[in-house]
Design brief:
133 residues; Cytochrome Bc1 Complex, Chain D, domain 2; globular; 54% helix; mainly alpha
């Protein structure tokens, strides 16, 4: 009986560790942020503006085309997100993307105090364009 309890506890602990390992990179985004909508109308001008910001602030890690393969990408854990992954990007609301850009999460810096809200919303549009969304 003691063996059964021991191995049962061991299996439960192992399962918990696997769960924690698999979900360690999940973002915790507040519900009110998820519902935010991009107030900007998509336009070529907004995308051009976002492209300049992206090149200056994001490309070193996320790569020129958003694949997460920038020159600095290898030195970070977790690795920079592949912004061309339509499933990943399509599964997030504009509010979630805006929150991620604004608040950051190690190793990604927060851009809330470095970029205006308009610039961050423009980046949301650009990220969507990388993923074909």
């Amino acid at each position: 009986m003691k063996r059964i309890v021991f191995f049962g506890l061991l299996a439960a602990i192992a399962g918990l560790l696997v769960y924690v390992f698999l979900h360690r990179n999940d973002w915790r985004i507040p519900e009110n942020a998820k519902g935010l909508r991009n107030p900007l109308v998509p336009s070529n001008a907004a995308l051009r503006s976002a492209a300049g910001i992206y090149k200056a602030k994001c490309a070193e890690c996320h790569g020129e085309t958003g694949k997460g393969d920038g020159p600095d990408a290898a030195m970070y854990e977790p690795a920079p997100a592949d912004l061309t992954d339509a499933r990943r990007i399509g599964g997030r609301t504009d509010g979630e993307l805006f929150y991620q850009i604004s608040e950051g999460r190690k190793p990604m810096p927060a851009f809330r105090d470095k970029l205006t809200a308009e610039q961050r919303w423009q980046l949301v549009m650009l990220v969507r364009s990388f993923a074909g969304k």
